[in-house]
Design brief:
Blueprint: H1 29-40, E1 47-51, H2 58-73, H3 78-87, E2 93-96, H4 113-123, E3 133-138, H5 145-156, E4 162-168, H6 176-180, E5 183-186, H7 192-202, H8 208-218, H9 222-230, H10 235-244, H11 253-263, H12 269-292, H13 295-318, H14 322-341
Parallel strand pairs: 1-4, 1-5, 2-3, 3-4
Helix pairs in contact: 1-2, 2-3, 4-5, 7-8, 8-9, 10-11, 10-12, 11-14, 12-13, 13-14
C-alpha cells in the first residue's frame, strides 16, 4: 500500500498532493463534461489522448475519470474506490510512469519496453474486480521508441472493457499511429481564478499576498504556482514577468538586472522556472502571430524559438555563463518586439 509520502514521480513536489489524491478536479469543465457524456452513453473509446501544457491538471482529470468508470461499472462504494486508487492499490487500475531505479537512487529516464510488456501480460489475465479496467500512462512522452511501439500494438487491439488514458505534454512528438488510435482531448491553461482555487486548496495556510504572486507567475498552470510557493525568493521572476509584458520599453538596464539576478544560480529552481517563462512567452507570441495570419511575425517568433533552445542547449552542454546566455536571449526578444512593432500585415 502506498501513501502520500511515497515518491512516485521523478518531479514530485514536496508537500503537494499527487493527481491520484485530488478528490475534485478544478477547471476544464468542457472536457470533463465531454468525457462524462461519453461515459453516460457508453461511448468511451478504447484510448483517450489527453494533451496540453505540463502542470495544468491532465493527470488529475484522468484519475477522476478512472474513478467515475469504476463507480459506474463496478460494485464498490465510492469512498473505497477513492482510497484504493489514491493508494495505488485498485486492481482494475494500472498506472504506467517512469520507475525508480532498483538501486533506490533516482528514476529511469524513460518508460522502458519491459514495463509495457509487463502491463500487457497483466491485462491478459483475469481482472481483480468487477467492472472495466483503466490504464493511465503518465506521460506517454516518456516512452522510448521500443516502448511506444509495444504500447501501439495493444492500442490497436485493446482488451475488452479496457480504457487507455494517455497523457501528453508534447503531442506533436508522438507516433502518428498512436494519435490515430485515440480520441484526442486538448486541455488549455486554467484561468487565474481556478489556479488560485487549486493553490488555496493545496496550501490552506498560505497568505493571500503569496497566493497572488504565485497565481501571477503560474501562467494558468497550477504546478507552476506550487513551484513558486516553494521558492524562498521570487522577486527576479516577478521582474521577468513584468519585463516580458513589454520587452521593448526602456530602460535597457532592466533585462540586465534580471539576468544578473537569475545568472547567480544557473541550476537552481528559479533559473529553471525562468527558462520556462521565456519559452512560454515565445510560444504565446508564435500562437498570436499564427492566429492573426501575421507571417513575418510568425517567422520571427519561430526563429526566436530556435535561438532560445540553441542558447540553452549550448549553455548546458558547455557550462557557459548563464548571465550572458540570458542577456543574449533578452536582447533577441527585444529586437523581435521592436522589429514587429513597425510592421502592419494583413490578417
Amino acid at each position: 500500500m502506498s501513501d502520500e509520502s511515497e515518491l512516485r514521480e521523478p518531479d514530485q513536489l514536496e508537500g503537494v498532493k499527487l493527481p491520484e489524491y485530488q478528490a475534485v478536479p478544478i477547471g476544464h469543465a468542457a472536457a470533463r463534461a465531454n468525457l462524462a457524456a461519453q461515459l453516460q452513453d457508453g461511448r468511451l473509446p478504447g484510448g483517450v489522448l489527453i494533451h496540453g501544457p505540463q502542470g495544468i491538471g491532465k493527470a488529475t482529470l484522468a484519475f477522476d475519470l478512472a474513478r467515475r468508470i469504476f463507480m459506474r461499472t463496478g460494485d464498490e462504494e465510492s469512498d473505497h474506490i477513492f482510497a484504493q486508487v489514491a493508494a495505488g492499490a485498485y486492481p482494475n487500475l494500472r498506472v504506467l510512469r517512469r520507475r525508480p531505479r532498483e538501486t533506490g537512487k533516482g528514476f529511469y529516464t524513460v518508460i522502458r519496453v519491459e514495463e509495457v510488456r509487463e502491463l500487457i501480460d497483466r491485462l491478459r489475465k483475469t481482472r481483480g474486480r468487477a467492472g472495466h479496467r483503466v490504464v493511465i500512462v503518465d506521460a506517454i512522452d516518456d516512452c522510448n521508441a521500443s516502448s511506444a511501439n509495444a504500447l501501439l500494438k495493444i492500442l490497436e487491439e485493446p482488451p475488452a472493457d479496457t480504457l487507455f488514458l494517455l497523457i501528453s505534454h508534447r503531442p506533436g512528438q508522438l507516433l502518428p499511429t498512436i494519435k490515430s488510435r485515440c480520441h484526442q482531448l486538448a486541455l488549455r491553461p486554467l484561468i487565474d481564478e481556478d489556479v488560485r482555487e487549486v493553490l488555496a486548496r493545496g496550501t490552506p495556510a498560505m497568505d493571500a499576498a503569496a497566493l497572488d504572486r504565485a497565481v501571477a507567475l503560474a501562467g494558468g498552470r497550477p504546478r507552476r504556482g506550487f513551484e513558486a510557493l516553494l521558492m524562498t525568493d521570487i522577486g527576479s521572476l516577478s521582474a521577468l514577468k513584468s519585463w516580458l509584458d513589454d520587452p521593448a520599453r526602456p530602460p535597457a538596464a532592466i533585462p540586465l538586472a534580471i539576468a544578473d539576478a537569475l545568472g547567480s544560480d544557473r541550476d537552481g529552481a528559479t533559473a529553471r522556472f525562468a527558462r520556462e517563462m521565456v519559452l512560454d512567452w515565445i510560444a504565446a507570441e508564435a500562437r498570436i502571430a499564427a492566429n492573426a495570419g501575421a507571417r513575418t511575425r510568425l517567422a520571427s517568433a519561430n526563429e526566436l524559438w530556435d535561438k532560445a533552445h540553441a542558447l540553452f542547449a549550448d549553455a548546458d552542454e558547455y557550462n557557459l555563463d548563464t548571465r550572458q546566455t540570458l542577456i543574449a536571449l533578452f536582447d533577441a526578444i527585444r529586437r523581435h518586439v521592436q522589429s514587429q512593432a513597425s510592421l502592419t500585415e494583413p490578417t
